[in-house]
């Protein structure tokens, strides 16, 4: 079978979406399928480039930059993105009428036009993978107003994207009620598609971040690796670091990029905290070696979220055997997953007092429970399997 994967995230980008699509496409190939990844790029000079990445054909289509820019510029660029992609796809040698199925990965919500074109020419189904429910999450955390013009515009784009899908895969059962309220086509079904992460292939001996060479040497490290933006609510962990600053056995490491980084660093400087370090994002093949130096993984989701997700970093922590310290929104499925599998400590109470207790509890549990790390790895292998995700997608597309 031959499948097209449409996404705005693919290596060399280092975000969780890029890693997930890389792993998914490689697993399609491992299971005997042909895969063409179609993705926009602002980095190329030509209208398109085509390359082979481990037997995955990657088609990069010239488009405007959509990452790490202002909101207004990003909206304009994303609006133009599908038209630029379609125009440059026509100029490429890719035949768009030979696919047995289309897989569209969102974010971004603006890829519906591209998916519909390929779906129509190939007379096949489109499996839409939803990882962030936008614009709902942006309303929840106050980025946009529910009754404003931007909200209504984004809702129209969102509904159009859904209209192109035969199957929508959400990442958690808690998101199913949202889609029951949406007006979907009669041919569109919604199911849970668990997140996935393949075992990292890397040199475990190399990380550009060496904790023993820093002021955090000798401490138990709580690490956060990923986007630091409006949806994460990471400021509570700065307050937590301040509360435990007298405990020289604890350190906090934040690795990544995002709109909140500047403010978080300013807060650390203002509080004169000596138990926190910030680093820019690193290559994904360095992550296992980084986690080898750490003790626990941090998950943070803004309490105002009404939709639910399981961040890619959660899977990467489990894959490396890192127990979890999590503060999430109410009714998030991660709460049950963490508690039922005894892989860390989680709360929906965004209180520093509660987090201090959980930090102490987690450190004590890790000392008395030698099997916690093994449970993390087993859960990653059993529940968040790339092999299972591909089989589920193929079964409904064909």
Task: Explain this structure.
The chain is of the alpha/beta class. It folds into 2 domains: 2-193, Glycogen Phosphorylase B (Rossmann fold), CATH 3.40.50.2000; 211-382, Glycogen Phosphorylase B (Rossmann fold), CATH 3.40.50. β3 (48-53) and β4 (56-62) form a beta hairpin. The chain has helices spanning 16-30, 71-91, 112-122, 136-140, 149-163, 176-181, 235-243, 261-271, 287-291, 312-319, 333-341, 352-368, 372-383, 386-397, and strands at 2-6, 34-41, 48-53, 56-62, 101-106, 126-130, 167-170, 189-192, 220-225, 250-255, 276-279, 296-300, 324-327, 344-347. 39% of the residues lie in helices and 19% in strands. The longest helix has 21 residues, at 71-91. The protein starts with a strand and ends with a helix.
Helix content bin: 25-40%
Largest sheet, in brief, is: 8 strands, mixed
- State the fourth-level CATH superfamily of the largest domain: Glycogen Phosphorylase B
Helix/strand-derived category reads alpha/beta
CATH architecture of the largest domain: 3-Layer(aba) Sandwich
Number of domains: 2
Strand content: 15-25%
What is the C-alpha radius of gyration, as a whole number of Å? 21 Å
Strand count: 14
- N-to-C span: 9 Å
Unreliable segments of 5+ consecutive residues:
none
Oligomer kind: single chain
Shape designation? globular
Tally of alpha and pi helices: 14
Tell me the name of the CATH class of the largest domain. Answer: Alpha Beta
Which whole number gives the mean pLDDT? 89
CATH topology of the largest domain: Rossmann fold
């Amino acid at each position: 079978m031959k499948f097209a994967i449409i996404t705005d995230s693919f290596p060399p980008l280092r975000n969780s979406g890029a890693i997930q699509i890389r792993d998914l496409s490689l697993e399609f190939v491992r299971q005997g399928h042909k895969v063409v990844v179609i993705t926009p790029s602002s980095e190329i000079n030509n209208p398109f480039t085509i390359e082979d990445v481990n037997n995955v054909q990657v088609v990069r289509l010239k488009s405007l930059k959509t990452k790490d820019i202002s909101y207004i510029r990003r909206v304009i660029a994303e609006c133009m993105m599908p038209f630029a992609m379609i125009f440059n796809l026509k100029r490429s040698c890719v035949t768009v009428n030979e696919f047995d199925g289309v897989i569209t990965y969102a974010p971004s919500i603006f890829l519906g036009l591209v998916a519909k074109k390929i779906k129509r020419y190939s007379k096949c189904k489109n499996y839409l993978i939803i990882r962030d429910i936008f614009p709902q999450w942006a309303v929840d955390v106050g980025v946009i107003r529910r009754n404003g013009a931007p909200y209504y515009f984004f809702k129209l784009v969102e509904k159009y994207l859904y209209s192109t899908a035969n199957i929508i895969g959400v990442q958690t059962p808690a998101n199913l009620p949202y889609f029951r309220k949406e007006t979907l086509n009669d041919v569109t079904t919604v199911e849970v598609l668990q997140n996935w992460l393949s075992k990292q292939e890397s040199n475990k001996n190399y990380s550009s971040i060496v904790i023993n060479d820093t002021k955090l040497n000798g401490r138990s490290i709580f690490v956060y690796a990923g986007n630091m933006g409006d949806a994460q609510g990471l400021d509570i962990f700065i307050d937590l670091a301040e509360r435990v600053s007298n405990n020289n056995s604890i350190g906090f490491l934040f690795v990544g990029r995002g709109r909140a980084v500047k403010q978080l660093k300013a807060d650390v400087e203002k509080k004169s905290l000596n138990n926190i370090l910030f680093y820019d994002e690193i290559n994904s093949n360095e992550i296992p070696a980084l986690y080898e130096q750490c003790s626990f993984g941090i998950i943070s989701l803004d309490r105002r979220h009404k939709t639910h997700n399981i961040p890619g970093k959660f899977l990467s922590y489990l894959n490396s055997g890192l127990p979890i310290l999590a503060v999430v929104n109410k009714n998030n499925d991660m709460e049950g997953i963490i508690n039922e599998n005894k892989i860390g400590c989680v709360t929906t109470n965004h209180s520093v007092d509660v987090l201090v207790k959980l930090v102490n509890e987690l450190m004590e549990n890790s000392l008395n429970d030698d099997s916690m790390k093994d449970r993390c790895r087993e859960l990653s292998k059993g529940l968040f399997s790339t092999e299972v995700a591909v089989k589920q997608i193929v079964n409904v597309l064909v």
